[in-house]
Design a protein that fits this description.
The protein has helices spanning 41-48, 71-78, 96-106, 111-124, 140-152, 170-185, 197-202; strands at residues 2-9, 18-25, 30-34, 56-61, 64-65, 81-84, 158-162, 189-193, 207-211, 214-217. By secondary structure, it is an alpha/beta fold. It has two domains: 1-80 and 157-220, Rossmann fold; 92-155, no CATH class. The chain has a six-stranded mixed beta sheet with strand order 6-7-8-3-9-10, with helices on both faces.
Length: 220
């Protein structure tokens, strides 16, 4: 699914944020991405999301070398990747239903094509009764679940999450992790960036640990 070969990343003339990373991620796997603030977690997620190209080294995703792809092909591959941001990024003027359906509308689908799927997913994440609510009326946990639903409505092959439990209480954080685990059981490859160590102890998935721009994966 993902292969890094001696990948480094620097912004302008600054020192490298990521240094000589070599690893692979198998389809259907689940990894936590950990490390202190400034370790490079968000930069690594941006490489996974194909919104950045590495300064050095090679990245292969879905069997294609990223450095050889033009912008149109990168955009096509990005449609196979879902992203959950810590700050939700829901549009306040749209309802929960409309926010979750937005990726499908962008792809040109009509409401008659996606309506039943969106409603079913909202029921699954516990937002069936909030389908017509706008984001300002949702709690933090409800916004996060809406953001997760929006990220997975297109059935991505890879789901990335940047501190998805940072704005919710511990009980809801655990519920959200169970939701990610269920998505993984359905075949989605999941990478979650988090610094919440108590959660990591409850969910025994491999950890990708970043420190000073270098990466160690459990068992490697």
């Amino acid at each position: 699914m993902i292969r890094f070969e001696n990948v480094g990343l620097a912004y302008g003339n600054e020192p490298e944020v990521l240094k000589n990373l070599s690893f692979s991620i198998k389809p259907g796997s689940f990894h936590f991405l950990t490390g202190p603030s400034g370790a490079g977690k968000t930069s690594l997620l941006r490489l996974f999301l194909l919104s950045l190209r590495p300064t050095t080294g090679k990245i292969t995703m879905f069997g294609e070398k990223v450095s050889r792809l033009n912008q149109d092909r990168l955009l096509q591959l990005r449609r196979h990747i879902g992203i959950v941001f810590q700050e939700f990024r829901l549009l306040d003027h749209l309802t929960t239903f409309e926010n979750v359906a937005l990726p499908l509308r962008v792809l040109g689908q009509s409401e008659s094509e996606y309506a039943s799927n969106v409603k079913e997913l909202l029921e699954w994440v516990g937002l069936g009764e909030r389908i017509d609510a706008h984001p300002p009326l949702l709690s933090g946990g409800e916004k996060q679940r809406a953001a997760i639903a929006r990220a997975v409505i297109g059935r991505p092959d890879i789901l990335l999450a940047d501190e998805p439990t940072g704005n919710v209480d511990p009980e809801l954080a655990e519920r959200l992790l169970h939701l990610f685990a269920e998505l993984n059981r359905m075949g989605t490859t999941i990478i979650i960036a988090t610094h919440e160590l108590p959660l990591l102890d409850k969910f025994k998935y491999p950890r990708m640990q970043l420190s000073n721009g270098r990466l160690k994966i459990d068992g490697s």
